[in-house]
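can u do me a favor
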């Protein structure tokens, strides 16, 4: 769960401001359609990570 939280937070810190045009004055701009693809990919990666973690033995 913590891995998924870090993945989602990392995505939100970088991709959302990039898509919003915060870094446009430096030539860094992300097309909204590509941002939507990245958001979908982020959701899929979090879901796949949750499935992989389900198979991990967490007993210590």
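np, heres the sequence
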């Amino acid at each position: 769960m913590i891995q998924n939280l870090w993945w989602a937070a990392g995505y939100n810190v970088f991709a959302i401001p990039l898509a919003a045009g915060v870094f446009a004055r430096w030539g860094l701009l992300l097309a909204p359609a590509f941002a939507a693809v990245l958001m979908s990919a982020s959701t899929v990666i979090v879901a796949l990570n949750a499935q992989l973690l389900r198979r991990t033995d967490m007993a210590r």
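Residues 2-53 form one domain. hope that helps!!
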